[in-house]
């Protein structure tokens, strides 16, 4: 049984991960958290103690770490005797942290695909460009590496697998829908790191349809979804990590990702993108200073963590999975609804951070209990979904289903 | 008789000034042009020769100069034996170039108010913060310094004075209206240096009404103007240099400045301003780089000079001057209409640069002939307007009037 967790990162998601690890430290053992800025981890630890999140007395320590430095990361893993690393730092760190885990023989969990600073929207499948190149070595060494174990990617991958296992004989379409019906009250803000958020949408949109990669432009295809709790919302076909593994693992079903956007977001995004201000490529000012415009946009936008106190409303994220059951067409919608204010009251973060931060802790719990200790590199849909959904139900994210029999909670 | 001109700057306006000086080098003598970047002045000189702009054989030389370096500027004035300096460099240079002129005893002409990089929209009257503090010294030394001798400020100041002298017994209202009805075909661009352009509109709006400074927000007050040639256009009350001198020199009349903006400009401006991207104050990126957002916006926007080849349509800039004549209320509209394409064909710049660049050359000609060699610091409305209008008519900007007798050209 693996125990002792090292959390990497100190943003809004890391805050949730920290609280949830503390709340489950009877299973997870010692908790360590590391980030470039020590003050940020100290703040998170203070919040954990303030909320009395530790289930039982135990270790919760903070460390300064540049996680691009593989040797330093390995030293910290060894020094803390960590056996599970939850990487919720910036997406630029994945391959460095994964290498440190592979070299020290510990389990690796992340929530988003690896990215290189100077590149966006690389050739699909995205996992093939970085993570999957380490799959054979992970299997050979018996390293558990769970990729994309946030909500989306993550829980939505488990929902697709669940629909395939339980509700359909054959899956033809997986449409993942992510709606944030909450309001932060600011003129404009992104719900997680603006740099990563905008990088998701400045390239082309890849979807998997008719067994091939399909290319669209951002905001080219919109669709109204009538959803539980949040009502009818307009969502747009977007590129997203999970499409790139489900394309391989859903037996040829079409896989599309839809995200809800209001007209105001689209207007601001369109202005910034059209002007070139979302570019990840440096420009030179008249004074000769080289600067990446996107990093300046990030600098002027509100820190996503700062949105939490005033955030109100709910999120609804789930999978419309369509296919055949007993020879007839059937669609199920498996989903979760989260509440921004409840999330803030419990762990001091808003709902988007909450939905992203709870699942990797559920995954860590399942690695600790052995149920998900795969001893190889996997995407979430390659693991049994029911224990995951059960842990999520228990630790803060309730799974529901809507089908011909109505809406109801799911557990196993 | 003063002669020999040193042009400072190498942007779109400097290009026009260079061509117009060349076209009038029988009056103006040797022409020199200096800018930080030597390559830019060489390009302008090449354009002057390509268009065969030199009226008679003569000197037209380029120089590299950091015009913030007062001693270097003095050296260049002396070395070139210049007697008139036309400063059309960035607005941050004014006080340095003025000082160099005062120390060398030559005439100074500029087209926009002095600005300090870290400040916007200072206390009115703006001229009182910098330029007018040198007025006594100019008068004592007999230095001719003509402030704001572009179109607006500049020609519009002369129009206000002309209306007061010729068409009204008492002026009650001066409404300056600046409409660019042209199209550059880009998603978004500013017609002159984006940094200076945006700085005009990110502060509050000062107007002079009821003998006091009145404060509004940008885009708070809009009004449709039905204008010659360009038709009905929506203009907004804005802050602008000329309000700050006319407030003093129009015997207590209200002075307002209106600029035309399309909805698209307003939307882009509003997004950028609301996000903080038009700020002149530095921010720090996550990587610790200090950068002024406005300078990054400038870096991603098209170079205003690059707009010229495809620019089409016309500008209309003028003064609605209202008051009493023979005991009855009367309004005259004195204006110019310029054409982007004609400007480009003649001097290689678009119409906005053309309207800004022709007037300081007209002023230089009048300094050279002695008619405007004031031997003190003046704003344009303090000089006789008729010779100015006559020279402008001759060198490319025709003045017209619209009143109860219809539209017609004006000359004296």
From TrEMBL, chains A, B:
Residues 150-396 form the Saccharopine dehydrogenase-like C-terminal domain. Residues 5-146 form the Saccharopine dehydrogenase NADP binding domain. Pfam families: Sacchrp_dh_C (PF16653), Sacchrp_dh_NADP (PF03435). It comes from the Bacteria. This is Saccharopine dehydrogenase-like NADP-dependent oxidoreductase. The lineage of its organism: Bacteria, Pseudomonadati, Pseudomonadota, Alphaproteobacteria, Hyphomicrobiales.
């Amino acid at each position: 049984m693996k125990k002792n967790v090292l959390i990497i990162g100190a943003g809004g998601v890391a805050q949730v991960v920290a609280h949830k690890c503390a709340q489950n430290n009877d299973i997870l053992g010692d908790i360590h958290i590391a980030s470039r800025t020590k003050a940020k981890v100290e703040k998170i630890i203070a919040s954990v103690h303030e909320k009395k999140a530790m289930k039982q007395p135990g270790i919760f320590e903070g460390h300064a770490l540049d996680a691009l430095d593989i040797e330093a990361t390995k030293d910290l893993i060894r020094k803390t005797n960590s056996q599970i690393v939850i990487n919720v730092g910036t997406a630029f760190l994945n391959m460095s942290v994964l290498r440190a885990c592979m070299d020290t023989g510990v389990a690796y969990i992340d929530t988003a695909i690896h990215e290189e600073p100077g590149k966006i929207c690389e050739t699909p499948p995205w996992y093939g460009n970085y993570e999957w190149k380490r799959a054979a070595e992970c299997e050979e060494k018996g390293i558990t590496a769970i990729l994309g174990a946030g909500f989306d990617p993550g829980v939505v991958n488990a929902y697709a697998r669940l629909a395939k296992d339980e509700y359909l004989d054959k899956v033809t379409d997986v449409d993942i829908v992510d709606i944030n019906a909450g309001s932060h009250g600011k003129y404009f803000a992104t719900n997680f790191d603006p740099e990563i958020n905008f990088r998701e949408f400045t390239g082309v949109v890849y979807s998997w349809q008719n067994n091939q990669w399909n290319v669209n432009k951002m905001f080219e295809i919109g669709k109204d979804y009538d959803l539980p709790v949040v009502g009818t919302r307009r969502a747009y076909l977007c590129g997203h990590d999970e499409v790139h593994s489900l394309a391989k693992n859903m037996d040829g079903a079409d896989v599309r990702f839809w995200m809800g956007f209001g007209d105001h977001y689209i207007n601001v995004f369109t202005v910034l993108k059209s002007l070139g201000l979302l570019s990840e490529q440096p420009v030179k000012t008249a004074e000769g200073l080289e600067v990446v415009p996107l990093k300046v946009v990030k600098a002027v936008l509100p820190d996503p963590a700062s949105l939490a106190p005033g955030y109100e409303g709910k999120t609804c994220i789930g999978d419309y999975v369509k296919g055949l059951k007993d020879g007839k067409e059937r669609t199920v919608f498996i989903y979760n609804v989260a509440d921004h204010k409840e999330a803030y009251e419990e762990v001091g973060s808003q709902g988007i951070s909450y939905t992203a931060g709870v699942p990797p802790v559920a995954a860590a719990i399942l690695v600790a209990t052995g149920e998900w200790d795969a001893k190889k590199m996997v995407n979430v849909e390659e693991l049994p979904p029911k224990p995951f959904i059960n842990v999520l139900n228990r630790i803060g994210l309730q799974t529901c289903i809507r089908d011909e029999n109505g809406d109801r909670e799911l557990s196993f």
